[in-house]
Amino acid sequence: MDLIEFPEQIIVDVITLDPYDLEKFDKDEVEAKQKEYIAEKKAAGDEEDIYGSVMPMTLQYYYRNKAIKEYYQTIKDLFKFMQANPDINYRYLFVP
After folding, report:
1. Total Cβ atoms within 10 A of residue 15
2. Which three-class secondary structure string do you get for 62-90?
3. pLDDT by residue (tens digit) across 6-26?
C-alpha cells in the first residue's frame, strides 16, 4: 500500500486451482457396490477381513459432508476477502 495513493489503483485477477466439481454420490449405488464386493469376495472364498475393506455408510456420509464443506470454503474465503476490501478492482475470477 506504500506504492499507491488509493486502493482503487489495485487490480486483482484471481485464479483458483481447486477442482470445483463434487463427485457424484448416490447412496443406493454405493451400497450396491459394497454388497457386490462382499459377494465377490465370499464367492472367491476370500472371507478374511472382507468388511475391513468396506467403508461403513456413516464414514461415507462423513467424507461426503467434508467434501461439500471444502468445496464451498474456497469460494467463501474469496468473497470474504472481496467484502473486506471493496475498493480494490477485481477484474477476473477464474474457476476451473
Report:
1. 9
2. HHHHHHHHHHHHHHHHHHHHHHHCCCCEE
3. 888 999 998 888 766 677 888
